[in-house]
Automatic annotation (TrEMBL):
Residues that, per the record, bind FMN: 88, 119, 147, 214, 244, 294-296, 315-316
Annotated Mg(2+) binding sites: 183
Keyword Secreted: no
UniProt xrefs under Pfam families: FMN_dh
Catalytic activity: isopentenyl diphosphate = dimethylallyl diphosphate
Chain ranges passing through the membrane: none
Protein name listed in UniProt: Isopentenyl-diphosphate delta-isomerase
Family: Belongs to the IPP isomerase type 2 family.
Assembly: Homooctamer. Dimer of tetramers.
Underlying gene: fni
Domain FMN-dependent dehydrogenase: 198-361
Keywords from the named record: Cytoplasm, Flavoprotein, FMN, Isomerase, Isoprene biosynthesis, Magnesium, Metal-binding, NADP
GO molecular function, one term: FMN binding
A GO cellular component annotation in the UniProt record: cytoplasm
């Protein structure tokens, strides 16, 4: 059972935050709680077909392996994970989201996989909300990634702010998420993406932590990947189309039917995860590559690794499982890892590096 966020917006004395600040706080909390509710109650699946079924491994009837010896471990940012999995950034910053994130963090610790937190922008405006992002209590050893929208670099967020976000939660890296389409659809969205690349480059030079740039569900193109690597990012998360459609999520927040129709028209927008992996891999050199967006099971994970990914993220699938119960979340992650191990076994790949060297066939 998740808890409703209770916030007192009354002004009690002259040192209290301004009315504008309080209203902004209310908007942010409402939006975050709306996202939880909508993802849990509505069909927000992208209409873009999942392309993973277009690929298949050449089945090895004689794998010459013992299933119990399959090694799924990977080294991500100098930490060894049990499996190439990431609990992708979702939500955070409210009481309602904290229990959900605590479940996710405990699962990440149990399985020794990575986790990204939701956008921490709210911390910079309301430092007291940092308590809702403090997940090291539940997951002291995992790869933990801080997170803020890249567009905030055009909205007075500084290098020192970014460093603070990483260090206050004991994170291992910083995610800068790119969501121009989502911001354009939000009535309160930040849409000034002009000159952003140079600020990302400056941040990469100054920040003593790896910088990961991720989309939120519409994919990264070859051109964008090349420019991001030249800017100095340490990793890209393609977050392609095929999973949760944030245009659909925003559609359910709208009260205007005309605006809802505009949002609905983007349900089939974006580059698929599979295509984005291929494009980014072919147009970068040695860059750590995360794959997320519409992955369903361990077989999809294996295919993403063979296409060129180093780690694979899940958001919606883990979100829905965690909303049901912590045990359901544990079972879901276990099933994905089991499916990955069996895929590796049947493809005759004893470890993840061997899996990377397997060529997928197209149907």
């Amino acid at each position: 059972m998740l808890f409703k966020c209770k916030i007192n917006y009354s002004i009690k004395h002259k040192n209290t935050r301004s009315v504008a600040e309080l209203m902004n706080e209310k908007i942010i909390h409402t939006r975050k709680d709306d996202h939880i509710r909508i993802n849990n109650e509505e069909d927000v699946q992208s209409a873009v077909p999942n392309e993973f079924d277009k690929f298949y491994f050449e089945h090895q009837a004689l794998p010459e392996l013992n299933l119990v010896d399959i090694d799924t471990s990977v080294n991500i940012f100098r930490k060894v994970q049990y499996a190439p999995l990431l609990i992708s950034s979702m939500i955070g910053g409210t009481e309602q989201s904290h229990e959900l994130n605590a479940r996710l963090a405990r699962a990440a610790q149990h399985f020794n996989i990575g986790m990204g937190v939701g956008s921490q922008r709210i911390i910079l405006q309301h430092p007291e909300t940092n308590q809702f992002f403090n997940l090291r209590t539940y997951a002291p050893d995992i790869n933990l990634f801080a997170n803020i929208g890249a567009v905030q670099l055009n909205n007075s967020v500084t290098f020192d702010d970014c460093r603070q976000l990483v260090e206050e939660i004991g994170a291992d890296a910083l995610i800068l998420h790119l969501n121009p389409l989502q911001e354009a659809l939000q009535s309160e969205g930040n849409t000034n993406f002009a000159g952003l690349l140079s600020k990302i480059e400056s941040l990469c030079r100054q920040l003593p932590y790896p910088v990961i740039v991720k989309e939120v569900g519409w994919g990264i193109s070859a051109e964008t990947a090349r420019r991001l690597q030249e800017a100095g990012v340490s990793a890209i998360d393609v977050a392609g189309a095929g999973g949760t459609s944030w245009s659909e999520v925003e559609k359910y927040r709208m009260t205007s039917e005309a605006h809802r129709e505009v949002a609905a028209s983007f349900r089939n927008w974006g580059i698929t995860t599979a295509q984005s992996i291929i494009e980014v891999k072919e147009n970068t050199n040695g860059l750590t590559l995360f794959a997320s967006g519409g992955l369903r099971n361990g077989v999809d994970v294996a295919k993403c690794i063979a296409l060129g990914a180093d780690c694979c993220g899940f958001a919606g699938l883990f979100f829905r499982a965690a909303m049901q119960s912590e045990q359901k979340l544990f079972d879901t992650i276990d099933q994905i890892i089991r499916g990955l191990r069996i895929s590796m076994f049947a493809a005759s790949a004893g470890d993840v590096q061997e899996l990377k060297n397997k060529r997928l066939q197209r149907r």
